[in-house]
Specification:
This is Carboxymuconolactone decarboxylase family protein. The protein is mainly alpha-helical and 162 residues long. Helices cover 67% and strands 0% of the residues.
Length: 162
């Protein structure tokens, strides 16, 4: 839902932004970066957060993720491109993102246990909580992501036909 930006959380409430960024750093130090990109992107897809989808796609590509896996992420259950560990984490991030509907099911939680220890499960849950907070801030703020690739793109020359 594009529109005029409504607010700038970092400018108006820098302490909120600072604390969210500190939590972001803690989560990033505890989880594999490639997995974290997938989780952030999947939650952002579910929430329809264009800002976060753009940003996390750029970050994932920068960190070596493949275009194919990012393109297939919305249909990850039907794709063989994800490991069992990634599948367990993606199922959990969907449960956390859609918690009002799912209740964070025992099935998804138990699916984490063969792949993650208790500490890692807490950090996965925190990552889900945090990206959902960022999605809600970005969507309600109406901010738009400006890709660094867009800034470097060359203008397309005009072509006259006829």
């Amino acid at each position: 839902m594009p529109g005029k930006p409504r607010m700038n959380v970092a400018a108006v409430a820098p302490e909120v932004y600072r604390h969210l960024m500190q939590l972001e750093e803690l989560v990033a130090a505890k989880l594999d970066p490639k997995l974290l990109h997938l989780l952030k992107l999947r939650a952002s897809q579910i929430n329809g957060c264009a800002y976060c989808i753009g940003m996390h796609t750029d970050e994932a590509l920068r960190d070596g993720e493949t275009t194919e896996r990012l393109t297939l992420l919305d249909a990850w259950p039907e794709s063989s491109r994800y490991t069992e560990k990634e599948r367990a984490a993606l199922a959990w991030i969907e449960e956390v993102t859609l918690i009002a509907d799912t209740g964070a099911s025992d099935e998804a939680f138990d699916g984490l246990k063969p792949h993650f220890n208790e500490d890692e499960i807490v950090w996965l849950t925190t990552a889900g909580t945090l990206i959902n907070a960022w999605n809600r801030i970005a969507i309600s703020s109406r901010i738009e992501y400006q890709s660094p690739h867009r800034a470097r793109a060359q203008p397309v020359p005009e072509v006259t036909i006829g």
